[in-house]
Amino acid sequence: MMENDDKLIKNFMLANKHEIEDNGFSRRVIRRLPQQAKWLSDILSVICAIICCTLFYIFNGFEILCQTISDIVASQTYYLMSDTNFQSLIIATVVLIIIGVQRVCSLKW
């Protein structure tokens, strides 16, 4: 039943379709929109960036950022050092030193 109704509506619309000539109106509108929209987008981006930088400065963003990074590094260092086998750490260091020396020796002077 629905398919039949859809077909009837589609046939009716196709039979009564009227083309309206716009004499280039649509083309002119489309040409103007992106430039104005881009200009407005650029202005809004600059305004938002200025507001964000101002708020970052007002609320001591550098201090908060440095403290957060410091806390993350300290907690990760503590977590990694608490379960570290120092013998494995020494072996890894020696291997890295040997690889580094081999790389330096293989360079052509």
TrEMBL record:
<dbReference type="InterPro" id="IPR032129">
    <property type="entry name" value="DUF5056"/>
</dbReference>
<protein>
    <submittedName>
        <fullName>DUF5056 domain-containing protein</fullName>
    </submittedName>
</protein>
<dbReference type="Pfam" id="PF16479">
    <property type="entry name" value="DUF5056"/>
</dbReference>
<feature type="transmembrane region" description="Helical">
    <location>
        <begin position="39"/>
        <end position="59"/>
    </location>
</feature>
<keyword id="KW-1133">Transmembrane helix</keyword>
<keyword id="KW-0812">Transmembrane</keyword>
<keyword id="KW-0472">Membrane</keyword>
<feature type="transmembrane region" description="Helical">
    <location>
        <begin position="86"/>
        <end position="105"/>
    </location>
</feature>
